Amino acid sequence: MTPVNLAIILLVLGNLLASLSDVAVKVLDGGVSPFQYIFLRQLVSLALLFPFWIRQSSTSRNLSNQKITVLRSHILLIGSCCMVVSITYLSLATANAVFYTAPLLMIPLSMLLLNERPSAKKVLQTIVGFIGVVIILRPSQFHWAAIFALGTAMTLALYNILVRKIPNEQSVITTLFWTTLLSLPVSGGLAWFYWQPLTHNEIFWIALSATFIISYNGLATMAYKKAPATQISLAEYSGLIFVVLFGVMWFDEVPDLLTVMGIALIILPLMPKTWLKKIRGR
């Protein structure tokens, strides 16, 4: 299996878990402040990572490129806050349609920050996917929460692009551990200011969301270290299928015809050529 194909598989699996994390946030339905949710999620994530991090050698536990790691940790906080707001007020499919503009944003960002040059085919696929997103959003029915969803997309794109500036020698566990740890001071201060009592049920959903999202972050980190962002970023769109299914199954969010058309435009560029030939009957 080529590094690119393996990276795509890792991203698809990661997006499945990220979609389940979104479901947990949707269940909370705004009952927990975004800052409190983010702090507790990061705290649970750190607890999950610590046993794996401490088992590494002292050299492997060291942090490389501190400035980039600090930057990524706070980019993650901003994106997470925007994500909670958008999922609370939008349907899962609509919010995630905006989230998945992240791969579109990664094309120019990878050119700017990493000096990568995407092929004309990748650019065309990106344009097709963007048209699908516009159809789903329908500007005439634009909701203010979509701005927060766009904020999530931008921070996710930056978060994934900047991982390429971290040395390959640094393990995924170490990268995630330090990114999570360095986010706690700011997230903890904001959570303290907005703190409110939590039920056992809310704590359960926050912990579940943390487990899923830290798994996504790990898989995405591995994927973007294995292959250039311009070759695999479209695989991020696979999560849109999952959230649509979950929205129908658990929240009665049945997409209309235009939404389905938009999703099709997003998904089709991801399909291998052999699959598209079978669909056309060749």
Write the layout of secondary structure elements.
Blueprint (H helix, E strand, L loop, with lengths): L2 H26 L5 H21 L11 H24 L2 H8 L2 H13 L5 H18 L7 H18 L9 H10 L2 H10 L6 H27 L2 H4 L5 H14 L5 H11 L5 H7 L3
Helix pairs in contact: 1-10, 1-12, 2-3, 2-8, 2-9, 2-10, 3-7, 3-8, 4-7, 4-12, 5-7, 6-13, 8-10
- Helix and strand sequence: HHHHHHHHHHHHHH
Question: What is the count of helical runs?
Answer: 14
- Chain-averaged pLDDT: 85
> What is the CA-CA span between the terminal residues?
25 Å
Described by strand count, sense and barrel closure, the largest sheet is: none
How many β-strand runs? 0
Structural class: mainly alpha
Helicity level: over 70%
Which shape, going by the Cα principal axes? globular
Which parts are unreliable, with pLDDT below 50 for 5 consecutive residues or more? 278-282
Question: What would you note in describing this structure?
Answer:
The protein has 282 residues and is an all-alpha fold. The protein contains 14 helices and no strands. Helix 4 (92-99) crosses helix 7. The longest helix is centred in the C-terminal third of the chain and has 27 residues, at 200-226. It is globular. It starts with a helix and ends with a helix.
Brief summary of the model shown:
The protein is mainly alpha-helical and 282 residues long. It has 14 helices and no strands.
Characteristic terms for this protein:
282 residues, globular, disordered C terminus, 75% helix, 14 helices, mainly alpha, single chain
